[in-house]
TrEMBL record:
GO terms for cellular component: cytoplasm. It comes from Loxia curvirostra. Transmembrane segments: none annotated. The gene is Apt1. Its EC number is 2.4.2.7. GO terms for biological process: purine ribonucleoside salvage. Residues 69-163 form the Phosphoribosyltransferase domain. Belongs to the purine/pyrimidine phosphoribosyltransferase family. It comes from the Eukaryota. Keywords: Cytoplasm, Glycosyltransferase, Purine salvage, Transferase. It catalyses: AMP + diphosphate = 5-phospho-alpha-D-ribose 1-diphosphate + adenine. This is adenine phosphoribosyltransferase. It holds the Pfam family Pribosyltran. Pathway: Purine metabolism; AMP biosynthesis via salvage pathway; AMP from adenine: step 1/1.
Amino acid sequence: LHAQCLQRLQSPRMDLCHVPATREKGWYLALMAPNVKGPNYAWLDPSRLYCHPQGLQDCVADLLQPFQGDAIDMVAGIDAMGFILGAAAAATLRKGFLAIRKAGHLCVPTEAQPYSDYSGRQKLMEIRTDAISPGLRILLVDQWVETGGTMRAAIELVERLGGVVAALPCVPTGVAAICMESSEGGKWIQERYKCSHCVPPRLQPRFDQHQ
């Protein structure tokens, strides 16, 4: 994977045509680019993955595979990059999509929840109050779970409105992200909810260490 990353970074343009002969789970992770702008940014940028047709399709398929046969009523994506994977997952499942927004963007009645993101910044998350009815089974999607603060806030909002986010051992739906790091917050989520991510076990330590 590291050699593939270096080869692609040496190219001045994205290669949107190359597809490996053998597409193992997570092959598309090599399409992501490392942070070159400093500590105020995430350590990896997955947006090039989204530009690759086969990479995006395989990423969404891998995220949804553990939920095959599960009863999912709606997909919810977290502002902002979770909108990409969440909407793609909703379209694949032929379900509706609910945008969970950062505060100040919704002009309808909302429920709010404070949280700290991966950088430790204090923020406020909002969800419209009319989209979730009691018992609605929600698949929550975000791009990345690092410290777990953002996802926990989204879970809190959905459950406060009566939605179900796959609390173990009853697992009608759950939580999905490209990577779920083995942080304290990440472990808290994985111990309590049905989760799906794209990082193979052999690479998980490198992702946890941001290598």
